């Protein structure tokens, strides 16, 4: 089974647009820059790129065969389907597993998105018959985060037998490496300038 990845599509597209912009600027700095100013500009570019990577490209909720993997900004969490006790949504999706609570960085339900969803549900409820009104109220008031939480709840119920592993939360090596590289660029810029 192919893993299902849930994330903010807007953040993902904007993140990759920034990566293209950063790659072009790195090429320009290498080809045309002089050392002190190019290194300072490269350090600023490196810090922003590291932030874009850890905050826009990396975060995701990945539903796998054996459990759900949550990639947050600096941390990774894995919860097997048999360990999922509850999935709820406040402003973020929250997965509870025993004493461990995992808040998902993405997708999130903003107040604006909730208001738009409630408006869609109210509009559909006014113009429909009773059965359509019930469907509109149940589905129309849901945000993307509510839908993802529902999918995770359904998967946790149906895949309990095929779950594997144990609940664990760890630091992300790729995120820490990106932050360390950005800090190294800043240190180099201070030393050279």
From TrEMBL:
Pfam families according to UniProt: bPH_6
InterPro entries reported in the protein's UniProt record: CFP-6_PH (IPR019692)
Ranges where the Low molecular weight protein antigen 6 PH domain occurs: 58-122
Top-level lineage group: Bacteria
Bilayer-crossing regions: 10-27, 39-61, 169-192
Keyword vocabulary terms for this entry: Membrane, Transmembrane, Transmembrane helix
Protein name: PH domain-containing protein
């Amino acid at each position: 089974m192919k893993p299902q990845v849930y994330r903010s599509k807007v953040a993902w597209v904007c993140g990759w647009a920034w990566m293209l912009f950063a790659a072009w600027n790195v090429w320009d700095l290498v080809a045309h820059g002089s050392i002190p100013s190019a290194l300072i500009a490269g350090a600023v570019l490196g810090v922003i790129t590291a932030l874009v990577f850890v905050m826009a490209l990396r975060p995701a909720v990945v539903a796998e065969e054996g459990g759900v993997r949550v990639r947050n900004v600096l941390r990774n969490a894995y919860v097997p389907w048999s360990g999922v006790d509850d999935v709820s949504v406040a402003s973020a999706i929250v997965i509870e597993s025993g004493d461990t609570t995992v808040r998902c960085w993405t997708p999130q339900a903003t107040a604006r998105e909730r208001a738009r969803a409630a408006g869609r549900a109210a509009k559909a409820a006014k113009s429909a018959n009773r059965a359509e009104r019930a469907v509109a109220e149940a589905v129309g008031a849901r945000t993307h985060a509510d839908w993802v939480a529902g999918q995770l709840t359904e998967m946790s119920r149906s895949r309990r037998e095929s779950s594997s592993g144990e609940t664990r939360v760890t630091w992300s090596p790729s995120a820490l490496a990106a932050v360390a590289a950005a800090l190294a660029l800043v240190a180099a810029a201070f030393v050279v300038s």
